Amino acid sequence: FYLLEYSMKDRVSENMLLKLLFKCIHCLLYCIEKTVEYISLWGYIFVAVHGTSFCRSCFDSFAFQLKYFSQTLVNKSVQFILKLMIKLTITVGCTFIAFCWLDNDADFTAQYNPIWPTIVVMLASYIISGAFCTVFDVSIDTIYLCAFEDMERVKNNAGATLYMSDDLRVNFGPHPAPRPPPPPPPIPIPTPISHAPLCPHSP
Predict the structure, then answer these.
(1) How far apart, in whole angstroms, are the C-alpha atoms of residue 142 and residue 123?
(2) What mean pLDDT comes out for the span 178-186?
(3) pLDDT over threshold 90, residue 172
(4) pLDDT tier at 162, thresholds 50, 70, 90
(5) Secondary structure in 3-state letters for the chain
(6) Beta carbons of 46 and 40 less than 8 angstroms apart
(7) Is residue 122 a contact partner of residue 95, using CB atoms and an 8 Å limit?
(8) Region 75-91 average pLDDT
(9) What torsion, rounded to 10 degrees, do the Cα atoms 136, 139, 140, 143 define?
(10) Where does the pLDDT of residue 96 fall: very low under 50, low under 70, confident under 90, or very high at 90 and above?
(11) Cα–Cα nearest to 58, from 76, 31, 40, 36
């Protein structure tokens, strides 16, 4: 497509309709690319959880998100807000600390401008926080998937065991399972009674 657009760039620049058409195709391809990336990420999670092939896992992940569309939308919205807060706090905090530390160093400020190292710290902290957010994102998606797989298994089989914790059961809908009764108290062991005479004989 990009080769076709490059070969027709003269005609596209002269024709407004062709330019609009190519912009629409760009938008469509971008949406397809992001959708494939998103489904592929969930496909890797399904591979790790179920051990199925990648193509089958991508299909199952797409069907899973269609089935629980509203829950997935809420989950992704909360993840976006949390990741934004994490990135902002880490980036702003590291940048502020770096600037204050460099600005209060008289030897450094006498030779260099603290603004440029602060910009480097800001970029590095943003990249590193983004990497941590990626791990956080995959962890939340995995917990979310396992929780709904647990609920689905119990829905299909009433005798199945829920493996999620009580907190997750309360938040996701199922009631907490009854806790096992406490173990009985230990039976006290009687101390041996001494048979020594009450009035020992004197020598």
Answers:
(1) 29
(2) 62
(3) no
(4) low
(5) CHHHHHHCHHHHHHCHHHHHHHHHHHHHHHHHHHHHHHHHHHHHHHHHHHCCCHHHHHHHHHHHHHHCHHHHHHHHHHHHHHHHHHHHHHHHHHHHHHHHHHHCCHHHHCCCCCHHHHHHHHHHHHHHHHHHHHHHHHHHHHHHHHHHHHHHHHHHCCCCCCCCCHHHHHHHCCCCCCCCCCCCCCCCCCCCCCCCCCCCCCC
(6) no
(7) yes
(8) 89
(9) -160
(10) very high
(11) 40
Q: Are 42 and 141 in contact (CB under 8 A)?
A: yes
Q: How many CA atoms lie within 13 A of 33 on its CB side?
A: 6
C-alpha–C-alpha distance, residues 164 and 176, integer Å = 9
Task: Kindly report the length of the chain.
Answer: 203
